[in-house]
Description:
The structure holds two protein chains of two kinds.
Chain A: H1 8-31, E1 35-40, H2 58-64, E2 69-71, E3 77-79, E4 87-88, E5 94-98, H3 113-124, E6 139-146, E7 149-154, H4 161-168, H5 176-180, H6 182-187, E8 197-203, E9 207-212, E10 226-231, H7 235-243, E11 249-251, H8 255-261, E12 267-283, H9 293-301, H10 305-312, E13 317-319, H11 333-338, H12 343-352, E14 360-366, H13 375-386, E15 391-397, H14 399-407, E16 413-419, H15 426-432, H16 439-442, H17 447-458, H18 462-479, E17 483-495, E18 498-499, E19 515-516
Parallel strand pairs in A: 1-10, 1-11, 14-15, 14-16
Antiparallel strand pairs in A: 2-3, 4-5, 5-7, 6-7, 8-9, 9-10, 11-17, 12-16, 12-17, 13-17, 18-19
Chain B: H1 2-28, H2 34-39, H3 45-54, H4 61-75, H5 88-123, H6 128-142, H7 146-158, H8 175-209, H9 212-219, H10 224-260, H11 266-275, H12 279-307, H13 309-315
Amino acid sequence: xxxxxxxxxxxxxxxxxxxxxxxxxxxxxxxxxxxxxxxxxxxxxxxxxxxxxxxxxxxxxxxxxxxxxxxxxxxxxxxxxxxxxxxxxxxxxxxxxxxxxxxxxxxxxxxxxxxxxxxxxxxxxxxxxxxxxxxxxxxxxxxxxxxxxxxxxxxxxxxxxxxxxxxxxxxxxxxxxxxxxxxxxxxxxxxxxxxxxxxxxxxxxxxxxxxxxxxxxxxxxxxxxxxxxxxxxxxxxxxxxxxxxxxxxxxxxxxxxxxxxxxxxxxxxxxxxxxxxxxxxxxxxxxxxxxxxxxxxxxxxxxxxxxxxxxxxxxxxxxxxxxxxxxxxxxxxxxxxxxxxxxxxxxxxxxxxxxxxxxxxxxxxxxxxxxxxxxxxxxxxxxxxxxxxxxxxxxxxxxxxxxxxxxxxxxxxxxxxxxxxxxxxxxxxxxxxxxxxxxxxxxxxxxxxxxxxxxxxxxxxxxxxxxxxxxxxxxxxxxxxxxxxxxxxxxxxxxxxxxxxxxxxxxxxxxxxxxxx
Amino acid sequence: xxxxxxxxxxxxxxxxxxxxxxxxxxxxxxxxxxxxxxxxxxxxxxxxxxxxxxxxxxxxxxxxxxxxxxxxxxxxxxxxxxxxxxxxxxxxxxxxxxxxxxxxxxxxxxxxxxxxxxxxxxxxxxxxxxxxxxxxxxxxxxxxxxxxxxxxxxxxxxxxxxxxxxxxxxxxxxxxxxxxxxxxxxxxxxxxxxxxxxxxxxxxxxxxxxxxxxxxxxxxxxxxxxxxxxxxxxxxxxxxxxxxxxxxxxxxxxxxxxxxxxxxxxxxxxxxxxxxxxxxxxxxxxxxxxxxxxxxxxxxxxxxxxxxxxxxxxxx
Lengths: 517, 316
């Protein structure tokens, strides 16, 4: 009914239909079984995988674009567009891939090695301003051997690059960047991916939607006909969307309500520790009082991580004192045991430090939380450290203000929850080695750590890499350049009709394998 | 009257200019660059500098302001969003009608109910009707705007399924669904202002009804409805002034209501723009709200001059 037709009779008829409409809506929902709706709290800024939005909204890039390999839901590296994981040369500088045959882009064009070469070289060219370009700056170039065979050449050994592809990269058709321009990739990337979803529409401040890719190269996937990613910032509204069946899956449920909601009829829920979700306190080792290793150790022993994680984060953080999730293959329990909660030890270390009578520092914290709210944790830390005579002044500011301050080394300390691709070395490299974009946040350098990092970069298998990672954790426990509280969990709630859904250890909701009952 | 219109219009234009200048200065004084939001934490200093040069953010603030004002005044061009690169004119055209509809309906609901309640309350002073109206008014001004919204979402969408929990259904998709999608947001928007205007109508009408000229009118044998009509015309002057201001304030409350009900209107766009340091969008939205606020107050002034011709005469 057009607005101009809104006669009195029409209005009365519409009014009379109101009580019936709820039933009609329920009916239409039951019939629209092919539409999967996911509600997320944050705001998308781009569909371009090289300028990705936050980890939640990578669901968009990951449904459109694919990579040679993928870091899957469980954090296992698997081949994606490539037939198998690459063959790596002895010197760790050459990665040889063979592509699946018959894969087509959304525009019908077949995928070839030339497209892979073009995509990587476009991303690596500084002129193209790919935000994640610096992450891959150890890559040199790509050599094409045949339409399905190629080699990626590195400048120096750097095995983690494979794990970063899923979050920060994609393969698009040769020439497409010039043909379509940046706005196409950013706003409406039709025809340029190989993924399970065909981009349909982006309605700002509302949703981004997809249609099923009928020619997707993995048979039978995806099982949904339409995918809608809705932007629902308010926690209560997001839960209401789920409970009233307007959303099938929600991300970042309110931690206080999560346990109660997941037992509600018709609702399921799960939380899994992420592989790259640091819950930590960044310390600037160049600024007093963190310029003294004994003072840092005192702080590390004075923090009751278990209580913070159980009582403040409601079990949404898996406790560890080292930069490795307890559930990961690279976790070193011996290193974790070094930093037990022990106030006597804390006082002993404090006495040995340059600040035997205590000290004070400013602890920054995000005023508007993104993944987990750290404000209560900051208050708890303040009271905990007061027990050993350390005064904490809390400073609240928006994360977008704090992040650049952290990167410039302008903060004493920051309690935060940061997400990364989930590789064992990425965050350590970025924050605790020299020459990285976050190096000044810690101002920490250690020759042995650098050496261990290089040794780990040379390895592509877990077993040979493990001793280096274990030693790294022991070194970081002993020197405590940062304080780790644990690894936060990715949590989702979903309705019963959602089948084959699993919470991703990479935080981003993955729906390629999901079907609707 | 013409003098009053010209004077008020001139003052409104001056207000807009001052607001635009303050707005520009405030948005540019926010620490750090929007480039950080767009390019991410890993962006190098060179990338940040390049972004700022590309978007003219490296120029002096006054130069940026003049260029923005020139585009706005001469070409009606609000520019492009830094983060999404969307054309702002298109975004305003898409989101403004949504917010405007919510606010206008909420305003009409608030005004209609408050005039009726306030009048009944004043006419039957200290009666059960008066007590009920006053109680409602006290509750309305005391409850924070988001609270009835959250309660209604829980009670009428999650538990009853009578209304959708959020979202805006355009009129083109059916009148019934459209009304269902805006009913709760409009109601929540109107509660506070309904209470304020009810109290104002009641107290103003009580004051007028006690005036000598009203007693004279009754003594002269004028009918009760006629007397009430005269009384209302005089009592409405402060109500219209408050209503004009309330209309503008409702856009502020719409920030919360659009967030709770997940409606993609202009208030929601403003909130997102603030979080993303999207100066261009913040400026565009705040300027639109300022224009609406100024126009609403201009209309209220002119309406008051019509209700009370002495105001126009004084201005002349």
